TrEMBL record:
Residue ranges of every copy of the PEP-utilising enzyme C-terminal domain listed in the record: 520-870
Catalysed transformations (reactions): pyruvate + phosphate + ATP = phosphoenolpyruvate + AMP + diphosphate + H(+)
A molecular-function term among this protein's GO annotations: pyruvate, phosphate dikinase activity
The PEP-utilising enzyme mobile domain, residue ranges: 423-503
Record-given protein name: Pyruvate, phosphate dikinase
Keyword Metal-binding set for record: yes
Family stated for the protein in its record: Belongs to the PEP-utilizing enzyme family.
Top-level EC class: transferase
EC number(s) recorded for this UniProt protein: 2.7.9.1
Cross-referenced InterPro entries: ATP_grasp_subdomain_1 (IPR013815), PEP-util_enz_mobile_dom (IPR008279), PEP_util_AS (IPR018274), PEP_util_C (IPR000121), PEP_util_CS (IPR023151), Phosphohistidine_dom_sf (IPR036637), PPDK_AMP/ATP-bd (IPR002192), Pyruvate_phosphate_dikinase (IPR010121)
Amino acid sequence: MGKKFVYTFHEGNGEMRDLLGGKGANLAEMINLGMPVPYGFTVTTEACNQYYDDGGVINDAIVSEIFDHLAELEKLSEKTFGDPTNPLLVSVRSGSRASMPGMMDTILNLGLNDDVVEGLAKLTDNPRFAYDSYRRFIQMFADVVMGLSKGKFETIIDDIKAEKKVYLDTELSTDDLKEMVKRFKAFYHAQLHEDFPTDPREQLKKAVEAVFKSWNNPRAIYYRKMNDIPSSWGTAVNVQMMVFGNMGDTSGTGVAFTRNPSTGENKLYGEFLMNAQGEDVVAGIRTPNHISELRDVMPEVYDEFVAITKKLESHYRDMQDMEFTIENKKLFMLQTRNGKRTAKAAIRIARDLVEEKLLTKEEAVLMVDPKQLDALLHPTFDQASLKHAVAITRGLPASPGAATGQVVFNAADAVSYAAKGHRVILVRLETSPEDIEGMNAAKGILTVRGGMTSHAAVVARGMGICCVSGCGDIKINEETKTFKINGRVFKEYDYISLDGSTGNVYGEELKTVPAQIAGDFEIFMSWADEFRTLKVRTNADTPRDAKQALTFGAEGIGLVRTEHMFFEGERIKAIREMIVAKTKEQRERALAKLLPMQRGDFEGIYEAMEGRPVTIRYLDPPLHEFLPTSSYDITTLADDMGMEVDELKGIIQGLHEFNPMMGHRGVRLAVSYPEIAEMQTRAVIEAAINVNKANPEFNVVPEIMIPLVGEVAELKYVKDVVTKTADEIIKENGVKLDYLVGTMIEIPRAALTADEIAKEAEFFSFGTNDLTQMTFGFSRDDAGSFLNDYYDKRIYEQDPFARLDQKGVGKLVEMAARLGRETRPDIKLGICGEHGGDPSSIEFCHKIGLQYVSCSPFRVPIARLAAAQAALRNK
Ligand code: PEP
Ligand code: MG
């Protein structure tokens, strides 16, 4: 027998997630736990991969396996697919290993056609229900399988409601719904030049195929890239017997979380609607009831549901997000999964579960996604500026945080305006999966419709972006790009502010203040610190950044980019003088002006770090980056230097390089102009002596780092300049001062000859930004323009500048670390490229035995947690 591609729910279990997807595995598991789940089967993720391997066709073997299982489902349900006298209807839902917004989600009521709907009407004695189900099915099928926009169907619904002068869907009569079906089908035909498919088996095949296809739609690809999900996982498809929440007042449907997904509070949280189906709860058209009200409507069902939620949570030992339907007073569970939650809730839940003895500390540390912590590090509103602000309206506090920005009205505008460096707030009637990129680009999201479980709310929480949803007072006009609230009109680019923790909306720009690590967050981070072995340093160029990083738990500085200090005020003048100097004396004069400034900077940084290690990297970028370009600046510089303008222009032209990234930069500058290294050494050493004098307890030990080395002899040449200068200063001052000289490994040749380089270098810091650039041979500044084609064509799945390419660049890093240790067993090894703040790259650093990672201040907590998880996963 060949591979098995379809499993009934009864054959599966919770361990089979890779094969059955999260939804399928959990449905199977709920059945194993004896819970009421409608019968069904799962088409596996391997079938999805097979579909792609076969060139986008579901092969005959899989098709016949699907229909065999359908026959079994008919037996179990005692109903027949396509039989008007006793019809089986099914739902078709996608379900990959990780829950993924952006993919095809759900088709309900599949199996209906003109005959079956009549049969269903008779059988249930409820024609309104039958036609309500039918119109929903046509709309969902047309939208998700055939790609017709939902909007037009909504317009047809609105037209009929207007004609009938009713407000709610539930007020429409059977005849109205019949008319709706007619118009839907006419629209379907007009758009697609074919009739709506009447053969239920054809409907099913098409729906399964649509799920497979949705695995590779642009939104799903974008989401995978954002969340490190490989395309090779594929998605499963769940086909399940329908149960109906829209059968009348004793039926209903809802979604609930075992704990509050916004705050983490241990209290059942959710919403339901009576006489409704699937999407109604999240679509935000009718306002749902709070889950606790179900107790009054149907006490037995409520008690049964609560008992199930408790059992599920202790079984999965995590907060659950569940969907249920009540059909004629009988409860059915349609889904359970570990619920998405805000970062704040994630921390609180992790902590509470340890206190409730459901989890160990290790397990709790492993359950929080490090990237999610980012949301906790964002600012909140400054209390003083809030005092005078008056909220213009209030919506639901869907995803916490504070956001200020300029209003835009669609996802594309959000992406393009944010790319220009603006803070944007995306204001929408409601959001849908195609808005995902715009939502990610926005600082905050405001929607008119939708509850706490609406698309906007769920997705924003997952992304850690502030969101206020269900702000019904707002009258929005997406065409004219305006919205109105209490008579006040807001246009595109007007400022507003959102408080995602209270739901308040302010019609102005408000000041924000930085976050702090305190309370639950602090305790959780202390647990993470117990387990990690990697140290976490920061990349900081100013005392202010250094202090910020310290409050986030940095244990040192892994990279001070000294050139960043040269761009400010008067300094740029001095550096320009140094660059265009014609003689060594001229250059030394300019360097003498820079010396006190650099020394002052380093003193500030040493003081801020209070004796923790500080790695100072010498001048790195190509010199022309500092040169004047405007004619005013050129004339001024020529005047200052007593030079002719034309002569200066000649010098500037002479500094032009075709490939500056591979040009006169890094260690090469110090080889050509050793006086630069001398000045920087003087600043580093004198600053350390001064700070140690004032604060002997700090005992600063500077780490001097030479960039862009590719050959041991060039390192030795510059190192000799450094040690000669440093030793003289130390001697002159009559003090004792230790210091280290090391290098960055950021050129492939340095990695290849790391054993030789380690003879001179007391430490290596992997500069994986340049190392990635030089290994791939594409520019870190320009690759963005074509890498998107690589992601679209799935040649690369991840940005190698954001996530370390372990296969290629990682091989060089690992080899260099090994060679370095062979020569110098106690060599210090760290990383300071952007990858030092990326969780999967951090795990790699842990595995190859680096001592520390260094990242930007705001990523320090993320790195601390990722390092702890790496240690726990690789015990
Ligand atoms: C690197 O190349 O990884 C690095 C940290 O240096 P920079 O980004 O300054 O080139
Ligand atoms: Mg570099």
